[in-house]
Amino acid sequence: MKISAHIETDARNDDGLASVAIRGTDVEDLELDLPFADLYRVFGTPNPTALDLLAVAAICYAVDKSTARDGTSDEWTRQLEVSFPVSEPGRWASVAQDLDVVLTFLTGDVWQTSFHRAETNLFVAPKRRRQLARNPQEPETFEAVGLLSGGLDSLIGTIDFLEEHPKSRMMLVGHYDFAGPKSQQDGIYELLRAKFPGRTKLVQVRVSQRPRKNAETSLRSRSIVFLASGIYAAVELGADVPLLAPENGIIAVNMPLTPSRLGSCSTRTMHPFYLTALREVFKDLGIQNALVNPLELKTKGECVEQCRNLSLLKSLIPRTVSCSHASRRQYWKRKSAPNCGYCFPCLCRRASVHAAGLDSGKDYGIDVCSNELTVDSSAMSADDLRAVTSGLRRFKTDASIRKAITGVAPTEPLDAYVNLVQRGLTELRTWIADKGSTSLRRAADVPMSGHA
C-alpha cells in the first residue's frame, strides 16, 4: 500500500497548524486531526524537529487505524509505504531505516518510510496569537516530563518522581483519541494536583483522523504517538529534561505466553528493544532528551508495593484503568466496572494489588476467580486467561523464559529480565493459589494456598 501525506497549502487551522491530507491506495482519504491550540498556549512556537516528529507519529497512527488488516494474506501483516512531509528531508532520510525497524517491530507490519519537503510550513503563528499565547504568570520550569495514561503504572511513576524529588516540578502529558481516556486522566490529575500543589501541569494531546471511523482497532501504533507527544514537551522545556514513560517490566517485555503469541499479537508498546531503537532515532534527529522507563525492571506488584506514597496510591487505584478491553462491556457481569478483569493487563493488575491486600473480583466486569469466566469457555474473552494459565504451566525454568524472551527480540540485560519474569509469574501463581477457583488452579497447575 502506497500512502502519502501532504500539507494543504490553502488550508490552515485557527491554531496555526496546517491541514494535513493523507491519501493512498486502499486507504480512505483522510485529514489529520491534531488540535494544536493547547500545545501552542503552553510552549509557544514549536521546535521544527519536535513538531515534525509529532506529525510523523500522528500520521502513522492515522494510517494504522485506517488500513484494514483483514485484506492481507495472513489477515495481519500490511505492507505500508508511507511518505511524510517534513521541514528537513535530509535529516529524516538518515533515520528512515531505523524508523522502519521501530514501526515494523511495534505494529507487526512491514513499513517503508520516506520523506519529502513539506509544501509549506506545518505551523505558522496564528493571527490570534495573543489569545493563544502562554500565560506569562505560569511557571515554565519543569525538571521532568511524565506520560499520564490514566493507568496504574503511569500514576505510580508520577507519584514516585514527585515524592523522590520534593523540590521538582513535573509536566504530565496525556494522549487521547476521540473515544480515548481523557476523563480518566482528568480525574487522576485533579487529585494529584491537590496532593502536590504548584508542582504539576497536565497537557493533553488529541490525535485522531477525519473521518473518524476506524478500519482497524488493534491500535498497535498508539505508543509512538504518546511518546512523540511527551518528547515534544520535553524538547520544548530543554534538552536536559527527561521523558519518563512508566510501564512495569512484565507488560513491557510482554513475553509470549503461548506459541501463537510469538508475533505482534502480543503488544510491544514499551518493549525494551523498541525503546532502544526509538532512542537511536531521537538521537540521530538531534533530540538529546533522555527517554526513561523508571519501572522497567519491576513487576507490577513491586511497582505497587514499592510506591513512594502507598496510601495515596491506594486511594487512587480505583480511578485507574489498566484494561485493554474496556469498551467490550456487553457480556460483563458488572458493566459499571472500569476494568474487564479477564485481559492480560487486568490479570496482572489483580495479581499485583493482591499482595497489597487490595484485590476484589467485584471491582471488575468479570471475576475469573469465581468462575464467571473459565479457561474452558468457548468465548474469545477467555483467550488471555488460557494464555496465562498455559504460560504458568510452561515457564518454570530460566531456560524456557530466556528462549521465549529472545524469540521476540534482543533484550538487555537479559538475565535481569529473566529474573523479572520469574517474579512476575510468581505473583500470578500466588494470586491464583490464594483466590482462584479449583478449575483455575488446576488449569494453571497451581496448588491451593495454605491460607486460601
Brief account:
By secondary structure, the chain is an alpha/beta fold. The chain is 40% helix and 15% strand.
What does this structure look like?
- This protein is an alpha/beta fold and 452 residues long.
- The protein has a domain of 123 residues.
- The protein is built from 17 helices and eleven strands.
- Helix 15 packs across helix 16.
- The termini are far apart.
SSE ordering: EEEHHEHHEHEHEHEEHEHHEHHHHHHH
Helix content: 40-55%
Strand-residue proportion: 5-15%
The counted number of beta strands is 11
Number of helices: 17
Largest sheet: 6 strands, mixed
Oligomeric state, counting identical vs distinct chains: single chain
List the SSEs and their pairings.
Elements: E1 2-12, E2 18-24, E3 27-33, H1 37-43, H2 48-66, E4 79-86, H3 89-93, H4 96-107, E5 110-117, H5 129-132, E6 144-147, H6 152-164, E7 170-176, H7 182-195, E8 200-206, E9 208-210, H8 222-237, E10 243-244, H9 249-253, H10 272-284, E11 291-292, H11 300-305, H12 310-316, H13 344-354, H14 383-394, H15 398-406, H16 414-435, H17 438-444
Parallel strand pairs: 1-4, 4-5, 6-7, 6-10, 7-8, 10-11
Antiparallel strand pairs: 1-2, 2-3, 3-9
Helix pairs in contact: 2-8, 4-10, 13-16, 15-16
Give short descriptive properties of this protein.
6-stranded mixed beta sheet, 17 helices, 5-stranded parallel beta sheet, alpha/beta, 452 residues
